[in-house]
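User: Modeling request: complex.
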Amino acid sequence: MPLLHDDRLFPADPDTRAIARRLYATVRDLPIISPHGHTNAGWFASNEPFPDPAKLFIQPDHYVHRMLYSQGVRLEDLEIGKPVISDPRKVWRIFAEHYFLFRGTPSRLWLDYAFQEQFGLTERLGAQNADLYYDTIAEKLQTPEFRPRVLFERFRMEVLATTDAANDPLQDHQAIRDSGWQGRVIPTFRPDSVVDPDFPGFAENIVVLGEQTGEDTDTWAGYLAAQRKQRERFKALGATATDHGHPTARTENLSPEVCEQLFAAVRENEADDEDCEIFRAQMLTEMARMSVDDGLVMQIHPGSLRNHNQALFERFGRDMGADIPTPTNYVHALKPMLDVVGNEPALMIILFTLDESTFSRELAPLAGHYPCLRLGPPWWFHDSPEGMMRFRETATETAGFYNTVGFNDDTRAFLSIPARHDVARRTDCAFLARKVAEHVLEEDEAFVLAQDLTCNLVRSAYKL
Amino acid sequence: MPLLHDDRLFPADPDTRAIARRLYATVRDLPIISPHGHTNAGWFASNEPFPDPAKLFIQPDHYVHRMLYSQGVRLEDLEIGKPVISDPRKVWRIFAEHYFLFRGTPSRLWLDYAFQEQFGLTERLGAQNADLYYDTIAEKLQTPEFRPRVLFERFRMEVLATTDAANDPLQDHQAIRDSGWQGRVIPTFRPDSVVDPDFPGFAENIVVLGEQTGEDTDTWAGYLAAQRKQRERFKALGATATDHGHPTARTENLSPEVCEQLFAAVRENEADDEDCEIFRAQMLTEMARMSVDDGLVMQIHPGSLRNHNQALFERFGRDMGADIPTPTNYVHALKPMLDVVGNEPALMIILFTLDESTFSRELAPLAGHYPCLRLGPPWWFHDSPEGMMRFRETATETAGFYNTVGFNDDTRAFLSIPARHDVARRTDCAFLARKVAEHVLEEDEAFVLAQDLTCNLVRSAYKL
Amino acid sequence: MPLLHDDRLFPADPDTRAIARRLYATVRDLPIISPHGHTNAGWFASNEPFPDPAKLFIQPDHYVHRMLYSQGVRLEDLEIGKPVISDPRKVWRIFAEHYFLFRGTPSRLWLDYAFQEQFGLTERLGAQNADLYYDTIAEKLQTPEFRPRVLFERFRMEVLATTDAANDPLQDHQAIRDSGWQGRVIPTFRPDSVVDPDFPGFAENIVVLGEQTGEDTDTWAGYLAAQRKQRERFKALGATATDHGHPTARTENLSPEVCEQLFAAVRENEADDEDCEIFRAQMLTEMARMSVDDGLVMQIHPGSLRNHNQALFERFGRDMGADIPTPTNYVHALKPMLDVVGNEPALMIILFTLDESTFSRELAPLAGHYPCLRLGPPWWFHDSPEGMMRFRETATETAGFYNTVGFNDDTRAFLSIPARHDVARRTDCAFLARKVAEHVLEEDEAFVLAQDLTCNLVRSAYKL
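Assistant: Request completed. Predicted assembly structure:
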C-alpha cells in the first residue's frame, strides 16, 4: 500500500470527488512556480549532493523539530544548530520513534510525499523501520539523480526565488548565471537588516550599505538612494519582488524632516521601542514608493512575535520554532502607506497574515477595493489543507479569486516543494469541486480557475 | 442551460440535498419581508421606469464597482458619480468584459438571478454577449411590467423599509400613502446626521431639527425632545425601527449635566475626537431609552471605517466601496447601555457585525442572555452563502435560532432583493438539512424552523 | 421513535459515516474520565437521592435558564436562587413550553440524552407532555438506582474531579474516603478566593489561609508557604490539578520586593484595578513555580467577563448566565510566566479559551512549541458539536493531536456527564472519519487516535 492515496484531500462525497479528480488531472503536472521561499542558492551554484537524511529533513525544518520539542524531545538530542551532525542515524531514529506526533499535520503530508515520490518508500515511518528509511535515503542522496539541479528539473520548476539580505553579495546567484545552467533561480530583496533598528548590527549594516552603493548613508537622502541602488542590483540578477517581515503591519507617512531626525536616532541607538516601530513603519511606505518607480512587487508578511522562548533563543538562536503569531490589524495600519500609493495602477503589494480572523474582516475587503493590493496564500501555520480551505471560504466571496496570487511554498526544505504545491493544488481543486457541486460555479469555469490558481495568477502577480 | 441550477447552494450529499430541497420547497414562494435596506421610496411614489442597465446594475452597486476598481478599471470609465450616464452601453461592455471577476462571489449569484428570473437571459454574461444583454434589459425596462410597483407586487413583497435621515421630510413616503397604492413601503429612522458630530453639517442639522419639531435644540432637553418628535413623525408613516451605524459599538451612560456640557461642545465644534465618540456613545443609550418608550426597534450596525481611500473620497465622495470593517468589541462597549435598558421586557435591539470573530465570542453569548438583544443576519461582506453558513454554525449553538431575526437584504439594488432572499432561504435550508442529516434536528422541526427563519422571526423582531 | 438517533453527529456522506460508526463503536463504552467539573462531592458523601426534576435539570443549569431568560421568561418564575423550589411542577411546565428554544443547541442534545438514557423517555418534550416527564423523572429519582453512587458506577466513571476553594475543608472528600466506597472522586485546587483581590472577602480569606496552615500570611513569603501547604492538603485527598479562572491570561514575573509591596497593598485594599490585575498575573507565575515543585497540573481558564448584567447580579448573585467572553491574548500575556517555567520538562499547563480566534493564531502555535503547554478541550460556549469540530479543524494541523488533552465536561449537572462525553466522542470520531475519508489519516491510525482522545491523553495530561 502506498503512503499516499491518489484521492487524498478530495471531498468524500463521490460526485464532488469526481469533479475534484477531473480538475486536479489538469493541473497536477503543471510547472512549479515558487516566487517566495528560503532555499539556498548555493545548492544550485555548487550542485553538490545533499548531506545525510537528518541534515536534510530534520535540522532545517522548524515544523519538525518544534513538534518534537513540544513533546519533550531535547534539541540537543537532535543536534540542532550543529554545522555537522555527529550521529545522524541516532537523530533519525528519534524522529522515527516520534513520527506518530505528526498525524493530522501538513508536515506528515509533506514528508510522506517526499518519502514516497522521491525515495520510493512505501511503508509508514516508525521506530521499526527507521534504519531502512535512513539507509534508503542516504544512499539515494549520493546518486547523480539527487543533485540539486537534477531535482530542480525533475520537479518541473519554472522559477525558484530565494530570500536574500539587502547587503548580500548574491555571489551564488551570480555563479548560477555564470555557469550557463538554464534553471531560473532568482533573488528576493529582503531589507530587514537595513530597515529594522532592532536587527542585530543595524548601524554597521547601514555603513556597509553605504560602502556597497557609494552613497552617503549618514543622510536620509543618501540612505534612500542606497536602498534604490541595492534594489537595482537585485533586479539585475532577476529579482522581481521584495519581502518585508515586520512585527506589525504598521505604516507611516512622515515628512522628510522628521524622517531625517528619526533616521539619526535609530542609527545612533538613541531610539526607543516606539521610535523603532515608527521607523520600520515609515520604511514600508518608502519601499512602496520605490516599488512604484522600479516595479518590484512588494510582499508584506507581518505579525510574528519572533523568538518567544527566551531561554531557547539564548542557547540556540533564531528560527527554533518559537515564533508565535499575534493579533494583526491591517485597516488602520496600512492606511498611511495606502494614502500615498494605494491608487497607483502599476504597483503590486501582496499581503500575508498569521491572523486568520483578518481574512474576511480586513484583508478581503481591502484587496477587493485597492488596485495595488492582492492576497498572498495562507502562510506558515496556515499553509495546510484546513488553513487553505478556510482562506478560500473566507476570502473568495469578498475579494474574488482574481485578487489572490496563487500558491507559494515559503519553504527552507527543497524536497518538500513539490509536496507543498501538490497539497495546494489538491485543496484548491477540492474547493472548486465543492463550488461546482453546489452550482455556484459551472465546471468549465472551474477548469479555467484551476489553471489560474496554479500558474497564471502567480505569474502575473509576481511579474514572472 | 439556465444560468442558475435549481439545486444551487444545497449540500452535495444526495440525502442531505433531498432534505434541503423539501425544506426549500416550502419557503421558496413565501412573501418577501425586507425590514432594512436602502432602496428609494421615490421609485414607488413616482412609479417611473428604471433607467438604463448601467444606471440600474452598475452605478449604484458598490459591490460591483469596487471589484472592477480593485482590478484596475477606472471609476471614470464607469461614469461613477454622474447623474446621467453619457454612454451606458460602453459602461455595460466594460462590466461584461470583467464579469469573470465575480466568479465565486455573491454578486454573481444576485446578478445571474436578476438576469435569468427578471430578464429571461440564459447565456452567461461576457464580452461576446454584452450588447445582447444590454438591449434585452434596456427594452424590458421600458415595459409596464418593469415599473417599480409592478415589480414590488411580482416580488411578493409584504413590506419594504427604506432608511431615512432624521430630518428627511419623507414626502415620498407620504406620496405613496396618498396615492392609494397598497404596497407597504415604510421609513426607518436613521439619526446619524443629528447624533454624529462628525457628520457633515451636524450643527446646522441640529438647527433644522429644532425648526422642524418646534423644540429648543440649543438645550440638551430640547434636543432629546426633538428627537422624540421626529421618531413619532416616522412612526406615523409606518416606521417600526431605527438604525444606528456608528464607527464602534461604544455606549455611555453619563449624567444629564455632563451630557449638557458635551452637547454644547459638539454643537460648537469644540469637541475633540474622543468627545465626539462619547457623544455618539451616549446617544445610543438615549435612543435605547426612547425605544423603551415608543417601541421602535433599535438596529445597531457598528464597525465600518468609512471612506478608507482618501484620494477616492476626495474625487468621488462617499459609498465608493472603500468602507472597510474593523475589529469590533461589543462586551465592554454595550455594557453602559445594557446597564440602563438591558432587562426591559418590551425593548428590542438588533445587533449586526462586520467582525465575524464576535459571533461565537460575544454576540451569541450576549443575545443568549439579554432579553432585549437579538442577532441580525450576516451583514454586508458576510451577506453571502459562506458568510451565512458560518453565522449559523457559530451563533446557533449558543444563541439558538430564536434569538436571531431572519434575513434582511440591506440593499440599494431593488432588482437584487428577490435574489438575496433566495440565497438566504437556500442557505438556511442547507444548514437545516445538514442538522437533520446529522440527527441534531428532526425533520418536522426543520420545517417549522424554515418558516420561522423566513418569515416569523422577522415579523416579530421588527414588529411588522 | 427514540429521542436520539444512533447516528447523530456523524457526517452525512455514507462512507464517511460508516467509518465514524466503526470508530465510535470502539470508544462508546470506555470509562468516563472527568478531570474538571463543578459537581458536588457532597452528593457522593451522603448518597442522598437527587431532589425534584426542576431542582435537578433547571435551577443549577445556567445554559438552560439563560436561554429561557433571553426569551423573556422571568427568573422569579423559575424560582432561581431559592434553596427549595415551592412549585417545581410549575417551573417544569414553563421549561417544557419553551423547550423548542433549545433546537440546535448542545443543551438539547444533553437533555434528550438524559431523558432517554436515564429515564427511558421517548417522546420529545413539550407543553403537552410536561407532566408525564415530571412524574416519570420524579418517581425514578426516588429509586435506589438513582442514588449518586449507583449512577457514578452505572456511568462507568473512572474518576470525577470537583473544583474547590483553596480554604475549603474538603470534608465531603474526606467523608467519601472514610466511607470505604471505591468511587474515585477527587478535589481540584481553585485559589481565586485567596489570589484574586477582587474576590469578595479576599483579605479575610488570607487570614483564614494563615490560620489553616499555621503560616504568617501577613508576609509574602508566609503567604506563598501557606499556598503550598494548602496544595499539599488537596494532594493528600487525591487532587492532581489546580484551576485558575482569571479575567485575562496575563502573567507577571516581578521581584520578591515588588511582590511584597503589592501583596501589602492588595491585602489592605489600597490597590487599584491595575494593581489587582498585576497581582493575579504574578500569582499565575507563582502557582506555576509551585506546580514545578509539587507536580500539580495547572489549568488556566481565562477570558470571561463575569456578571455582565449588573441588575441581575444584584438580585440573584453570580452564575446567572451573564458571564460573557472577551477577546483574549495569550502570546504576550503568558510570556512572563513562560520565561520562568516554559521549558520545565515535568510541568504541565493546560490552556483553555472562550475566544476561538486564538486557536489557530496563538494557542496551537504555543502548544506546538512549549513542552509544558497543552490545549484543553473547547470550553463552555464552545463545548458543542460545531465548537468541537472547529477546535479540531483549527488546532490540529499546528499542535497535532498529542498536544491536546482529551475531553472534560466542566459541568455542574451530574446527569449530563455521560451525554457530554458522548457528544465529544461522536464529534471526535466524525472528525477522524473525515480525515480517513480524505486520506489524511489511515484508518488504523484513527482507531488509535480515538482511544487516545477518549482516555489516554486525559489520563496522562492530568496524571490520573
